[in-house]
Description:
The structure holds two protein chains of two kinds.
Chain A: E1 3-6, E2 10-14, E3 19-21, E4 23-26, E5 31-38, E6 44-50, E7 56-58, E8 64-68, E9 73-78, E10 87-95, E11 105-106, E12 110-115
Parallel strand pairs in A: 2-12
Antiparallel strand pairs in A: 1-4, 3-9, 5-6, 5-10, 7-8, 8-9, 10-11, 10-12
Chain B: E1 4-7, E2 10-13, E3 19-25, E4 31-37, E5 43-51, E6 54-57, E7 64-66, E8 76-78, E9 87-94, E10 102-103, E11 107-111
Parallel strand pairs in B: 2-11
Antiparallel strand pairs in B: 1-3, 3-8, 4-5, 4-9, 5-6, 7-8, 9-10, 9-11
Amino acid sequence: AQSVTQLDSQVPVFEEAPVELRCNYSSSVSVYLFWYVQYPNQGLQLLLKYLSGSTLVKGINGFEAEFNKSQTSFHLRKPSVHISDTAEYFCAVSRKSSGSARQLTFGSGTQLTVLP
Amino acid sequence: NAGVTQTPKFQVLKTGQSMTLQCAQDMNHEYMSWYRQDPGMGLRLIHYSVGAGITDQGEVPNGYNVSRSTTEDFPLRLLSAAPSQTSVYFCASSYLDRGGYTFGSGTRLTVV
């Protein structure tokens, strides 16, 4: 089984400042890694994913994440945030195979609040 | 493309009542799943399906039933609603061999 730990439940940051949302995972097998964003009263939207290849992954809205296998981490970063980035962010993993292993395990979420 | 459509968006049930949450996708995804979202707990998998006629339990299946008679539809049935089932429910789908789910907009269920 795999597990995901999001180290910060709430992250307040001022507009135009950089931000890092931390995610660590635990798994006995190789995994795919994902970040999702949830705006208030909406479903989850995929921000970016790591499947293989380059460990630096770029996503939508200027976000990027870096896969670090030795530290089992997949931290999400943005160099300059906007008010519109205020949302809850979820890190998730799935086992690196198809079929029933496609199920995602989610972290508990990080609420990013961008202050003016 | 509608993506993943969930109905209803809101529902209030009395303890002991039953109901079905509907989920439909038009992307020909093989994989479909139901999650519940509770504050501070992220999303937890209830049931999932890798194709028509195939379903399996997730992390928190008790009190819920599913079936998958077509590729498009994956309804979630609450057999006898309990206050502990008050939550926001999300349906999600994906291809089996590619990463990334598409989520519905959710059903907010309150059991009184």
